[in-house]
Amino acid sequence: MDQFRFVSDTEEQTLEMGRELGKALSTGDAVLLYGEMGAGKTCIARGIALGADCEVSARSPTFIMVAEYPGRVRIFHCDLYRVTNPSEAFDLALDETLERGALVVEWPENGGEYLPDDALEVRIERGSTSSSRLISMSVTGPTSQTLLSRFTESSKVMANQ
What we know:
By secondary structure, the protein is α/β, with parallel strands linked by helices.
């Protein structure tokens, strides 16, 4: 499976989808979260941190750029919203975080070529109601393919399709 689509009707379902993704994460995995402001990127990141048994609740790291959450898998949560030049993402050395944990990036479109080539791309769009979201995941290489497979094989979210 190269793609997965999910309709979330509530913020709680979006959080739970993130939690299931966090349970599937391993060191070396990268997740890129695309969506407009308020779409639910941070909600999914919070769920990922919960699923990875992180000790700290994820919140938008907009002002510090990269937050680190220790857990079963160390999560490096990066928000590139304020990046105006992709070279700023280069300075963050995000590829080096994959040796020590998993990388979750909000606003990856601002990072240009300085993000991992192999990442699970998660796109979030607003649905027909204020709380519904259309979430799609796609892979860009073998590592993200393995992550998506682990997620879909073990996820309770699949029952909600």
